[in-house]
Amino acid sequence: MGDFALHERLRKIRSIIVFSCCIAVLATTLSADQDDAQNHEVRDKRVRDVVHAAFVETHAGWSSDEVLLQNELQEAFLRRCKEQLPNVKSQEFNRTLLNLRKAGQLKVEVSQRRADRHDDYRHVAEIAARLLSDKHHATTDQIMCDPKLRMEFDEVARTMRPDVDAYLLRKAAFGLRKARQLKPEFVVRVADWGRTITEFTVAELRHNSEKIPNKPGVYIFRDATGYLYVGEAAKLRTRLTNHLNESDRLALANYLSQKTGAAITVEIHAFDPKSKAMATRMRRAYESELIASRKPKFNLRP
C-alpha cells in the first residue's frame, strides 16, 4: 500500500472516530437535557402540589386573591409552604398560587367575601402601582407576589394616604389590574432609552435643584389627590426649576403656591442623552402616553 493510500485511510479512520465522539457527546448532552427537563417538571409539580395543599389548609374560606393580599392569610400560607419547601422563594409560591387560580385548578369553596369601595383612594393605589411598575419593570401581579415589592408598594401608597389600611390599597390596585386599567404605556414597552426614575418632594427640589438630572426626560407632579401635571423637557433641571420658581402653567402655578412643597411629589423619568429621548417628538410621544393613561388634572389632553 502506498504512502498516499495509507495516509488517506488513516484520515478516514480519524474522521470516523471524531464523528463517533461527536455523536456520543451529543447523545450525552441530549440525555442530560432530558434529565434536566424531567427534574424541572418534577420540581414544578412538587411546588404546585405544596401550594395547593397550603392554600386548602390556610385560606379559611377566602379566595386566592385574598390570601395574597391579607397579611395574616399570606403569612400563614407562606409559612405552610416553607415547611415543605424551605429553599423556594416566597414570590414563587405566590406566583404559583395565582397561576393555579388562573388555570382553574383551585377547586376550593370560597365562603368569605367582603365588599369594599375604593373610590376615595383608588388614585393612590394607581400611583403606587404605576411607580413600581415603571421602576422595576414589574406587573401588578409580580409586585403583590414579591414581599419586597409589596412592602415598597405599601410604603409609597401609605405616604399619600396614611389613614387608609395597606390591605385596602393593595386590593384597589388589584381591582384596577383586573379592570385592565393598569396597562403599561406603549412607549415604555417598546423603548427604555436608559431610563432612570427618581422622586422628590417639591420642597426638596426648591432647596436643592442639583438633585434634578440634567438630562432629557419626562416629569410628573402628583400629590395625595392624584396626578397633577405631566411634562417633557430636553433639559429637566432647567424646565423643572422654572416650574418650581413660577410655572408658566397658570393652574399648576396657583396650585403649587397654595400647597406646601412637602405635600407635592415630582416623579422624574430621565433618559440617556445619547438615546432617542433627545428627539422632541419621542419625548412628546411618551408624554402623551402618560397624559392619556394617568389623566393629570392640569394638562390639556393631547
Judged by helices, strands and strand pairing, the structural class is alpha+beta
> Mind summarizing the main beta sheet?
4 strands, antiparallel
Succession of helices and strands: HHHHHHHHHEHEEHHEH
Shape: flat
The proportion of residues forming helix, as a percent range, comes to: 55-70%
Radius of gyration: 28 Å
CATH top level of the largest domain is Alpha Beta
Instruction: Calculate the terminal CA-CA distance, rounded to whole Å.
Output: 88 Å
Summed over residues and divided by their number, the pLDDT gives a mean of 87
The CATH architecture name of the largest domain reads: 3-Layer(aba) Sandwich
- Strand portion: 5-15%
Query: Which regions have little confidence, pLDDT < 50, spanning 5+ residues?
Result: none
Strand order, largest beta sheet:
1-4-2-3
Q: CATH topology of the largest domain, anyone?
A: GIY-YIG endonuclease
**Number of individual domains:** 3
Total helix count? 13
SSE layout and pairing:
Elements: H1 3-58, H2 64-69, H3 71-84, H4 90-102, H5 122-136, H6 140-145, H7 147-160, H8 166-178, H9 186-190, E1 196-201, H10 202-207, E2 217-223, E3 226-233, H11 236-246, H12 250-258, E4 265-270, H13 280-294
Antiparallel strand pairs: 1-4, 2-3, 2-4
Helix pairs in contact: 1-3, 1-4, 5-7, 5-8, 7-8
What's a quick, concise take on this entry?
By secondary structure, the chain is an alpha+beta fold. The chain has helices spanning about 5-60, 65-70, 70-85, 90-100, 120-135, 140-145, 145-160, 165-180, 185-190, 200-205, 235-245, 250-260, 280-295, and strands spanning about 195-200, 215-225, 225-235, 265-270. Helix 1 (about 5-60) crosses helix 3, helix 5 packs across helix 7 and helix 7 crosses helix 8 (about 165-180).
